[in-house]
Design brief:
Elements: E1 3-8, H1 12-23, E2 28-32, H2 40-43, E3 47-48, H3 55-71, E4 86-90, H4 93-108, E5 114-117, H5 118-124, E6 134-138, E7 142-143, H6 146-159, E8 163-166, E9 170-174, E10 177-180, E11 185-193, H7 199-202, E12 209-220, E13 228-231, H8 234-238, E14 245-252, E15 257-266, H9 275-288, E16 297-307, E17 314-317, E18 324-328, H10 334-350
Parallel strand pairs: 1-2, 1-11, 2-8, 4-13, 11-18
Antiparallel strand pairs: 3-7, 4-6, 5-6, 9-10, 10-11, 12-15, 12-16, 13-14, 14-15, 17-18
Helix pairs in contact: 1-6, 1-10, 3-10
This protein binds flavin-adenine dinucleotide.
Flavin-adenine dinucleotide binds near residues 33, 194 and 336.
Length: about 375
Amino acid sequence: MSYDVAIVGAGIVGAACAASLSASGLRVLVLESNDVATGATAAGMGHIVLMDDSEAQLALTSYSRDLWNEFADELPPEAEYDHCGTIWVAADEAEMLEVRRKQSVYTSHGADAEILDDLALRKLEPNLREGLAGGLLVEDDSVVYQLCATKFLLERASRYGAKIQTGVKVIEISDDGVKLESGDVIAAGVAINAAGPAAVELSPQLKIVKRKGHLAITERYPNFVRHQLIELGYLKSAHGSDKDSVAFNVQPRSTGQILLGSSRQFGVDSNEIDFNILQRMTSRAFEYMPELKTLSTVRVWTGFRPATPDNLPYIGKIAGCENTYAACGHEGLGITTSLGTAELLTSIILGKKTAIPIEPYSPSRIITEH
Ligand SMILES: Cc1cc2nc3c(=O)[nH]c(=O)nc-3n(C[C@H](O)[C@H](O)[C@H](O)COP(=O)(O)OP(=O)(O)OC[C@H]3O[C@@H](n4cnc5c(N)ncnc54)[C@H](O)[C@@H]3O)c2cc1C
């Protein structure tokens, strides 16, 4: 049996690509070595967020966020889609400058963003400590339970005729299709590498490194937090520093639980919990929200973000290949940008005009690290 498209990886990016390509009438096969949504996707926080680290990041997150907001009505209740908004929290006047800069960039790109003073901030989030300077409310950001969203995308792909095979490891990806660990070769017109942090094992020309993160989740405390809250210092942490970093980042879940992040570490392969990092991460959170100290945590886990040197994903044809494409390297924004990635890649493969310029995400771009 041959396919129009073979996708390696059933994380949220592979699932979104499968849904989009099969809806366009292509015969799609998804091959997953483990189980659906068990890689980086399982570890993520599910925050759908507008980010402006670069023009290209803003374009992709904005396009993708619009797609999520359109998709929201179709998602099942288990996907826990919550249009809760984000508040970027400013600790002092210096960070308020960043609030104003961010607001100006967002609004000039047509996105709503409201500056909050200290009183407005405390009114919206009474559990934040007193004495913070203010913040930026981005109302159109959301939260999703990405495991259910991934399964839903794959169910949709199946309804359009896609085949999903789990427990099948791909050992080679080429212009003719894919080779499995069993030795079988599956012919496909197009092969897509959506293997997340492992994408580089199949396509060594891509530069992707693993960036470890820790998350913790509490018992149920409804209304303790109402928006996704992130300190502005998160931007420095996410920006690509090679040092270990932590930032205050909490999220209300529709169950009433609170998801607590976040940390970033390069050069660590072990998925074990690093208690030093965990302690730094929770201490940082307590500085912003002292009452968090009194809540019980039920689980802590780690995961690996697939990071590229310029913080932009690879979307498009891989250098030196005819029919092999990349949809990987989404670092800490793969849940947000999965839907945009899938639509862009579908347009590229079908030779259609893309909704936003694709050059910044080209796998053969020349990358200047910043
Ligand atoms: C702590 C943490 C917090 C995060 N928070 C957010 C957030 O709030 N918002 C956001 O947008 N993003 C967030 N992210 C990032 C997001 O989770 C990832 O960018 C995204 O899940 C990447 O999805 P993916 O499908 O590319 O990779 P994955 O989910 O890793 O999927 C790749 C799949 O490929 C399979 N695979 C690998 N090699 C092979 C092979 N050879 N053959 C067959 N299958 C193979 C793997 O088993 C895996 O299932 C976070 C990540 C972490 C770690």
